[in-house]
Structure formats: structure tokens, C-alpha cells
Design a protein that fits this description.
Distance between the termini: 24 Å
Number of strands: 2
Mean pLDDT: 88
Oligomer: single chain
Number of helices: 19
Order of helices and strands: HHEEHHHHHHHHHHHHHHHHH
Structural class: mainly alpha
Largest sheet: 2 strands, antiparallel
Strand order of the largest sheet: 1-2
């Protein structure tokens, strides 16, 4: 079985952190629920610290069901750190609430599920990780317990359940036609001689679940409604952490388990990438609510990220490019949500005069929104450049052209948010005053700074992943 429990120390720390946070909140009065927040942050930091000694580790454990490699290591670092940023965004919103502890427990469980998705090298573990990473998301979407939150939670749950049925059916079918093998190495051997039609149906079923997780076409329609209905911190998590887990899980599945000569999955993923980025960008054009705008923005970003998945196994730069882009996107997207949480409005026009009222916040908004476009020298620029290069090397030049055109088009709706922010109101500024949250301000500043200078850090990360893959 190749049992090695300490190899799963980061995951075990996240699980222990969720249980400890829950117990802490149960025995503390409402005014001291902030202690549960400290416990949750401690668990996330402990998971990151436990990952550092395992940098560069390669191999699989527990009968080849869980992979330890560059993708898993990056997820173990990036996902808990992204969750920490979400906690920073949420501190002012959920602090003092009688369900504050529940919020942090759900964050920890969603984080654990996303990490397990990335490391899963067996279809059965993939299915379990899918469920673990999906159920907490519905709780987070409806955490506010208002009408909009209830609608968001219901849509997220129903679409996730439907996609989950497809994933489970696909897992069952692929395992059956592969001769009972569910681990990815055995699956690849078994599927090589299996009927291509059955393999195609199974791949579509599994892909349906992963597409829901990342919010890609045709299972994307929950994203704008859930992000708009959920609280801003929950929306930040919904548009970041599941994407990391789902995209890396899809990359591993296609790169290791599914033979491209049996099912032409590269073409399928490439078409989905083109449609997803195009629909996400053009749907964002008419949005007047900043939450829905960011929701469709993340749909478009998923389209760009799927380009690396489409060339999995065909381009050496695909995995390093995907990891660099995911790090850049996570920081930049969370920074945009931090600004939104610091200045929460339901219309883009309500941000008129923001540069005069809160110049540093306006500067952070500029960095994050132009960063999402991919403007140099931001981190997303480095991510897009590497992904576009990998797709070109993988023979998808047409997809690179489509992505470049979409990038130019996306500038329009980001400017629709920035122009009012730097336009002085014609009359007295009637925007309601928003309380200043120091934790939130610090979170926005740190993420914006990371989004701006992250391109410098992309180079060593890219080289580190390349060196790890060459071992």
C-alpha cells in the first residue's frame, strides 16, 4: 500500500484545524468567537509550514491513489494562503456574528477538499474530494441567511449535485471499461484497449463535474448568481479556491489517465476554453453590478487557464505555465474582492469619486483590474504569457489568437469600473460612508502589491517547477 501518513501532514493539519475550530467556537461566547479565527489561521499557516520540507518531492502513496509532485506542492501552499486572504477579507464582515465560527470551519473544509482534488490520482479519491470540496461551498454561499444568499446556496447545491451525478457516473464507467482499475496509471493502460465510445462518455461525465468546479461552459451559469447572492468574502472564495483545485485535477486526469489517441480530449478542452473565455468576457460587458462583473471575469479567466489543460502531456511548459497563472490569478482576483469588500456597492456608478475619497483603495483597484486584463508588469501578464506560449508549442495557435482577441476585448468592462472611480462627481458626493476596516485595508494593499510585483516571482516559480519535472 506504500502507507506514509506523514506525507499527508498538511491535509491532516487542515482537517484537525477544522475540528478544533468548530470545538473552539462551541465553547466560547459570541463576543470571543475571534479565537476561532486565530485557530483557523493557525491551521492554515501550519499546513503551509508542513509543506515546505516536502518541496521537490515526487511519487505516489497509498496504492498510487495520491500524488506528491509539483502540482500538489503548489496547491498545498497556494490554497491555504488564498484561504488566509479570504479570512482577512471576511474578518470585518463576520466578526461578532453568532455564526462566525461556522464560516471559518467551512473555509477550512473547502480548502482541504480543493487540496485533495489536486493530489487525487485515483478516480474514487477524485469523487470523494469533489464532494468534500463542494458541500462547504453551498454553506458559504448561504451563510448570510438572507433571500439572496438562500438563492445562491440553492443554485450552487443543485447544479453541483447534477454535475456530481455526471462525475460519479463517469467514474463508474471508466473504471468498468478499464478492467476495474481506478488509479490513473492502471486506468491509462486499461483505457488504451477499451471501446472509444464508452471512454468518451465516461470522460464527458467526469469532465462535467470538474467544469462545474471551475465554473466553465456549459456548467458556468451558477457563478454570477452565487457570487452576487453570497457575501463578498464567500464570493472571493467561490471564484478562487475551487478553480485551483478543479483545474489542477483536470490537468492531472488528462495528462496521466486519459489516452489522447482513444479520445480526442485536447480538441474538446480547447473548444471549451475558447467558448468559456468568449462567453465570460462578452457577458461581462453589460454588467452594472461589480459582483456579477467579477463573476463573469472569473469565467473568462478559467477559459485562459484551460488552454494549459488542453496541451497537457503535449507541451513541456504546460504545467509550469498553469501553476504560474493560478498563483497570479488567485492573488489578483482576491485583491479585487478585497477592494469590493472595503467599498461595497451594488452599482459601478456608485464608485464615482473613489480616487478622491480613498486614493490608496482606488490605486489597488487599478492594479487588480488591469492585472486581470494581463497588463505588464503584473503577475497575470506573466501567467498569460507562459500559458499562451505553452498553447502555441502544443499546436493550438488558433486558440492563442482567440485568447489574445479576448484579452483586448476584456479591457472594456474593466474600464467601465475604473472610469467612474476616477471621475469627480458632478454634484455633492451622495455615496454613503463606509466604515474603515484596517484588516481589510491591509489585505487589499498586500494583494495589490503582490499582483503588481508578482511577475518577478513568476520566474523562479516557473524554473522550480521545470526542475522538479525533469527529475
Amino acid at each position: 500500500m506504500n502507507e506514509h501518513p506523514l506525507a499527508l501532514l498538511p491535509e491532516l493539519l487542515l482537517l484537525a484545524g477544522a475540528v478544533t475550530t468548530l470545538l473552539t467556537g462551541v465553547f466560547l461566547p459570541r463576543r470571543r468567537q475571534w479565537v476561532a479565527r486565530l485557530v483557523a489561521c493557525g491551521a492554515l499557516l501550519a499546513a503551509v509550514a508542513a509543506t515546505l520540507p516536502a518541496l521537490g518531492e515526487q511519487g505516489t502513496i497509498y496504492a498510487h491513489s495520491y500524488a506528491l509532485d509539483a502540482a500538489t506542492t503548489t496547491a498545498r501552499l497556494l490554497i491555504p494562503l488564498a484561504a488566509l486572504i479570504v479570512v482577512g477579507i471576511a474578518a470585518g464582515r463576520v466578526g461578532g456574528n453568532r455564526r462566525e465560527t461556522e464560516f471559518y470551519v467551512l473555509i477550512l473544509l473547502a480548502t482541504l477538499g480543493a487540496v485533495l482534488l489536486v493530489g487525487a490520482s485515483d478516480l474514487l479519491l477524485l469523487a470523494v474530494a469533489y464532494l468534500l470540496s463542494s458541500i462547504p461551498l453551498s454553506g458559504l454561499a448561504g451563510w448570510g441567511r438572507d433571500r439572496r444568499g438562500a438563492e445562491a446556496a440553492l443554485k450552487l447545491y443543485l447544479v453541483g449535485a447534477l454535475a456530481g451525478v455526471g462525475l460519479l457516473a463517469g467514474v463508474a464507467l471508466l473504471t468498468a471499461v478499464a478492467g476495474g482499475k481506478s488509479d490513473y496509471d492502471g486506468l491509462r493502460v486499461g483505457l488504451a484497449v477499451a471501446p472509444s465510445a464508452a471512454v468518451a462518455v465516461g470522460v464527458v461525465g467526469v469532465l462535467a463535474g470538474l467544469l462545474f468546479k471551475i465554473g466553465a461552459v456549459p456548467v458556468h451559469f451558477w457563478v454570477p448568481d452565487a457570487v452576487q447572492g453570497a457575501t463578498i468574502p464567500a464570493g472571493a472564495l467561490l471564484t478562487t479556491i475551487p478553480k485551483i483545485g478543479g483545474l489542477l485535477a483536470a490537468y492531472r486526469l488528462f495528462a496521466v489517465a486519459i489516452p489522447a489517441d482513444v479520445v480526442d480530449w485536447p480538441l474538446l478542452v480547447a473548444v471549451l476554453a475558447a467558448v468559456t473565455m468568449t462567453l465570460g468576457n462578452f457577458a461581462a460587458f453589460g454588467q452594472s453590478d461589480p459582483r456579477r462583473l467579477l463573476a463573469y471575469s472569473t469565467v473568462a479567466q478559467v477559459g485562459y487557464l484551460l488552454m494549459a489543460v488542453a496541451v497537457a502531456g503535449r507541451a513541456e511548459r504546460a504545467l509550469p505555465a498553469l501553476l504560474v497563472y493560478l498563483v497570479a490569478y488567485a492573488v489578483t482576483n482576491l485583491g479585487a474582492f478585497a477592494v469590493l469588500a472595503a467599498e461595497p456597492h451594488d452599482r459601478l456608478d456608485d464608485y464615482r469619486g473613489l480616487a478622491g475619497r480613498r486614493p490608496w483603495l482606488a490605486a489597488a483597484l487599478v492594479i487588480c483590474l488591469l492585472g486581470l486584463v494581463g497588463t505588464p508588469p503584473t503577475a497575470v501578464f506573466a501567467g498569460k504569457l507562459t500559458v499562451f506560449t505553452a498553447a502555441w508549442d502544443g499546436g493550438l495557435a488558433w486558440l492563442v489568437v482567440v485568447a489574445a482577441l479576448n484579452t483586448v476585448a476584456s479591457l472594456f468592462y474593466y474600464l467601465r469600473w475604473l472610469v467612474p472611480a476616477f471621475t469627480w462627481p458632478a454634484g455633492p458626493d451622495r455615496t454613503e460612508a463606509v466604515g474603515r476596516d484596517r484588516t481589510l485595508a491591509a489585505t487589499g494593499a498586500v494583494t495589490a502589491l503582490a499582483a503588481l510585483v508578482g511577475a518577478v516571482g513568476a520566474v523562479p516559480l516557473y524554473r522550480l517547477v521545470e526542475q522538479t519535472l525533469q527529475r
